[in-house]
Amino acid sequence: MEGRYPIYISGETGFLKPDARAFMNLLNQEHFKAVETLMVGDLIEHDIEPAKKLGMKTAYIGRQKETIADFEFETIQDFFNFFVKE
Questions:
Q1: How far is it, in rounded angstroms, from Cα 86 to Cα 65?
Q2: Which residues in the chain land under pLDDT 70?
Q3: Cβ contacts of residue 12 below 8 Å, gap of 6+?
Q4: Listed residue (39, 41, 44) closest to 27, CA to CA
Q5: I need a labelling partner for 59 at 20 to 30 A (CA). Which of 14, 34, 41, 82 fits?
């Protein structure tokens, strides 16, 4: 995936999730609009909730069902199958 789509690690931003600054720092640095950005994560409290509060679309990867995420996938492969078209 790297090289094809930007991938970011929160620890590299200088802030740790769920701190909103971890998301805002990246959005500002890359000139991304929150409403045009997809946050993919496996932790509702650390990944999905703060991203949604900023207006980002969210994709949860894990076993929980009926989360607050916009998209839910059990595995990363399910996510790739849905979003990545060759």
A1: 28
A2: 1-5, 86
A3: none
A4: 39
A5: 14
